[in-house]
Every structure is written in structure tokens, then in C-alpha cells.
Amino acid sequence: MSAHSNTPSPTGESFNQRDLHLHQHSAARLGSVYSQSQYSESFESTSASSVDEPQHPPRPLTPGVYVPTVAFFDSTTEDLDLESAAKHAVRLANAGVAGLTTQGSNGEAVHLTHHERKLITRATRKALDDAGHHTLPIIVGCGAQSTRETIELCHEALLSGGDYCLVLPPSYYKPLFSPTSLHDFFADVATASPLPILIYNYPGAVSGLDLDSDTINTLAKHPNIVGCKLTCGNTGKLNRVAAATDAATPTHPGSGFMCMGGSADFTLPTLVAGGSGIICGLANVTPKACVRLIDLYTRGRVAEAQQLQAVVARGDWAAIAGGIVGTKSALEWYFGYGGVARKPLPRPTSAEVARWKEAFAEVVGLEKGL
């Protein structure tokens, strides 16, 4: 993805040319600190700035709907079901989404080994390529509690066919953080990562830790940080970040920075605030409805978009209330695949299956009519 700032400098170099020089210097320095020689055997690189890692044509992020794909497991053994993962990826791509996200919160990343993470991303990339969706980007969730492991996951994302990394802040040792710990974490990861980074702000998943707009805007100046996902639901924060970064929108290329909402129930507020689109779990079930919502707004059919947003918001409430368990139950009931989540997440009871069937009925009915 192209750099997202074009402010001229007094030296004649652009802001990003100067930052890129600093980035390359810092990457080499961090490469010596975070040597990959002690990482897992899957690592083929020897430093954070290795030239031996695979290269592929860039797949730009474009405004629209991105889907944090669920992970699929055998209902008896809980082994990965890569066939369903591939089928699901192609179904979403055919619905017109702008990209996929593997190993997000919906993807049960915390239930997966490093090896399983790589298998899912590889299967997703292969399925997309085999179906002709060569340019559809994959964002890979790479959050971990240490800077070192996060960087390792970023390298593994590249080796598995990923295009971008989505990174949560660490939170286990939150009480011991200094005022600069989170800034330093993201700056170090972005400098050492072989893939561009999106900041993931999801307080519910990280002990209530909530990055403010000042922090995100400062980090957005890093040449390898190209976007953010705001699952905090704070549209005021989203507006401040979108304005400060001149974020890309469906009708304006802007700087290219992607300022994404994190839930389908505030798709329209995100777009009105100048955001780039949505990374939303509901799109696992109803991708066409989510894509249609952004399309209506982009084409100026605001009244229709408002009506559709109400239906999507009600469906998203089912996805939020049911979480992964409810989302998979809906996929199984309405589309014949989905399975169950890994333990200790519970298997839905028959009453709960009926509840999620009813809760998703309206938005799925709309989906099947598109």
C-alpha cells in the first residue's frame, strides 16, 4: 500500500521518504534485537529485515467491508476444518467484500497454535487464488503479549500469504506499563514487521485498555502503520482519526490510511464520520447485506441506506449477543456449515439454536434476497 502522508519537507524529500529512511534504519536495528534464529522452525528468515522472505504483488486495501472470518473445527475432534475455511472464504469473496481478516476475535485466535494460524491463512489464500480472487487482500491478526512474539506472528503472516497485520495492544501486564509502553510497542512492531500494520482498538478484549485518538494519530505517522480498526464504537474518536489522517473513503482516496469501524451496527455512522468502511463479524453470515449498505450510501441513496442499517443493526445485535457461538450456529442453520467453537466455549443447546435462528432470521432473509 502506498504511504499515507504527502506533506512536503524543507529538504525536498517527502515526509514518507524521510520516514522510510528512518524506518529502514530502525528495522535493521530491531532486526538485530529481535533475531529470528530462536523462533520456531517454520521461520525461514534470520532477521526482522530479511530479504529472504517471500515477495508478492501488493494487494491494496480499499474502502468497503472486511470480514473477520470464523475458524472451523471438526465437531468431534476439534481439528481444523480447512475445507470449510476455504469454502467460506470464497463465499465471502463472491459476495463482493473488500478483504478478509484471519485470526481476529471471531477467528478464535486465542484457541489456535502458531502452526494452526498459518494453516488457516494459507488455506484462505489458496482458496481465494483458486477461485480467481487474486487481488483480494488478507489481513492477519497478530496480537500477542510480548513485542517479540507479535513480530514473530507478523513474519509468519507474510510466510502464510497474508498482506497486512492487525495488532491488538498487549494488556496482561497493563498495571506495569509506563506512559510510553503502548506507543513503543506499536512503533517497535511496525518497524520490525515485514507487512504493514493496522492498529486494533478493542477494549473488551484487552482488559478495558482503550487507545485514544491522540495516540492513534501519532502512531499513524509511522510509515508502516496504514490503518486502524475501532471496535470501541466511539464515532467521535473515529472522526478525529479519519480527519487527522485524511483517511480513504468509498468516494475519496485521501491519503490511503484506512480508518475502519469494528461493528456492522455503526456502518453508516462510520461513513458519515469519514471512515473507510467496516471490519465486522456479521458479514460472516450476511456479507451481501453489509456490502449493499455501503453501496447505497456511496451512491447517495441515504434513505434506503438508513432503512437497511436498521435491519443490519438488529442482525448485528444477534451477532454481538451470541458471539462466536451464535454466529456459528446461524451459519450452520442457514448455510449448512459453521460447526462449533473450541472448548471451553460451550456447544449451543437446542433452545439456543432456536434463539439464534430467530435472531438472525430478518437479516438472513434480506441476504438471501440480494
Describe the fold and architecture.
By secondary structure, this protein is an alpha/beta fold. It is built from eleven helices and eight strands. α2 packs across α3 and α9 packs antiparallel against α10. The longest helix is centred in the last third of the chain and has 34 residues.
Q: How many helical stretches?
A: 11
Helix fraction bin: 40-55%
Largest sheet: 8 strands, parallel, barrel
Beta-strand residue percentage:
5-15%
Question: In terms of quaternary structure, what is this?
Answer: single chain
Whole-number radius of gyration? 20 Å
Reading side by side through the largest sheet, how are the strands ordered? 1-2-3-4-5-6-7-8
Order of helices and strands: HEHEHEHEHEHEHEHEHHH
The overall pLDDT, averaged over residues, is 88
Tell me how many strands there are.
Answer: 8
> What is the overall shape?
globular
Classify the secondary structure makeup into a structural class.
alpha/beta
Query: How far from one another are the termini?
Result: 32 Å
Summarize the structure.
This protein has 370 residues and is of the alpha/beta class. It contains 11 helices and 8 strands.
